[in-house]
Amino acid sequence: MSNKIKKINLNHSFIFFFIVNICCVLFFKYSNFNISSILCLLLILIIGVSHGSLDHIKGKKLLELLNIKSNYIFYITYILISTAVIVTWMLLPSMTLILFLIIASYHFGKEDTQFLINDVSYFTQILYFFKGFLIILAPLYFHFQETVTIFKLLLIDNEMFYSSLNLIETNKVIQIGIISSTISSIFLFLKNFEIKKFVIFLDYFSILILNYYLSPLLAFTVYFCFLHSIRHSISLAIDLDPNNIVNGFRMFVKKALPLTILTGVFSFIGLYLLTNSYNLDSAILKIIFIGLASLTFPHILLEYFLEKNEK
């Protein structure tokens, strides 16, 4: 990871932490202020999804490493995996949700931290998971019933699943998980100690502040779009033009636009179809989280295989 990316990401975390504090205090003071779920969907489609819209370029690079000449193999495989995730969610929603939360925790922890860490040991990967697990645990801790309601809207009707959640809340398991996430952040901070790694705690407190003041959907939207996705997009822009980040970002937007638009079109088609059976907010939640799951699985698999074959 270049020093330029490190410096930009450090500045980004400071700015994000500062803005989150100001916005959340204002939100708390003027509690009548409300942000609709449709705005959350638009932000995720425009800013959030776009950070994975260069997967076709990475896919082409992976095919070259594997000496595969046909680009259609990548597109077909990517679409099949996404479709399989949606179908599996319809058939086995509880299992798919749990698997998605586990994978997403690791992905968030790694992507948000690896620019500070050079180590690739298994222990570090475990630390990434627990660090990212805070994204899942914080809304459960601060807004348990509201988060459970979201799970129910995601087709989770398994009584055993909800009994387990209630057992987890009763036995303080969520608090233990947050403590584990805190300890993982401390370990990552102390590993090959550098004072600039204090930024890990800025992200940590930003996530807690967001979930304390905001609803689970809004807190996730702010984190996913303005911390996780923008950080990843900046890295991609620098990769495209290491000498001129403005030009690199311009190139990124141009290259990401086609797949971002295509994802948006399919999302609104799905939203239109779902509103025939569900109210608008329920349909939006399904599009956001089931849709993100269908994109996250192939995105993470691509990152894994590309990293493995590059080595």
Can you put this structure into words, describing what you see?
By secondary structure, the chain is an all-alpha fold. The chain has one domain. Helix content is 80%, strand content 0%. The chain contains 14 helices and no strands. The protein has helices spanning 3-29, 37-48, 55-65, 72-91, 93-111, 122-132, 134-142, 144-153, 159-170, 173-190, 199-213, 216-240, 245-274, 280-310. α6 (122-132) packs across α10 (173-190) and α12 runs antiparallel to α13 (245-274). It starts with a helix and ends with a helix. The model has no long low-confidence stretch (mean pLDDT 86).
> What number of structural domains do the residues give?
1
Low-confidence segments: none
SSE topology string: HHHHHHHHHHHHHH
How confident is the prediction overall: mean pLDDT?
86
Net shape: globular
Counting copies of identical and different chains, the oligomeric state is: single chain
How far the N terminus sits from the C terminus, by CA atoms, comes to 15 Å
By DSSP (H or I, 4+ residues per run), the number of helices equals 14
Q: Give me the secondary-structure category.
A: mainly alpha
Helix content: over 70%
Rg estimate, integer Å = 19 Å
Largest sheet: none
